[in-house]
Amino acid sequence: MNIARAAGGYLVVTLKGVVDYDTVHRLLIREIARPDFLHSNDIWHFVGCLPDLHFDELDAIVQDIARVYPDGATRKRTALVVEPGLMGAMVNLWVEHARELPFEVKVFEVYDEAVDWVTS
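User: That's the sequence. What structure does it adopt?
Assistant: Structure tokens below.
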């Protein structure tokens, strides 16, 4: 699991394996702490992931973001790239909770489509 800056100016968070609340929380804190986060859209890429998240943790993740989201951020979009299946269903449920965040969140199955969206 890592966070990297893509050549297109957006951030990419790559997750593999089992995804639980602690993993997501740690990655969020690391990403938000980056100086380039304020002005960079991002892609969270779930590669072969299995969720180990409880339904109430979906809202907790949204609250975590809202609590530490920096003032002055100009970023507008987060793309979530996930394969159909259990992880995809969990990510789609999370997007319903994320509607209150100050940026748009959208789910994609195709990575290149997510890139086009965050860079447009």
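Residues 39 and 69 are 12 Å apart (CA to CA).
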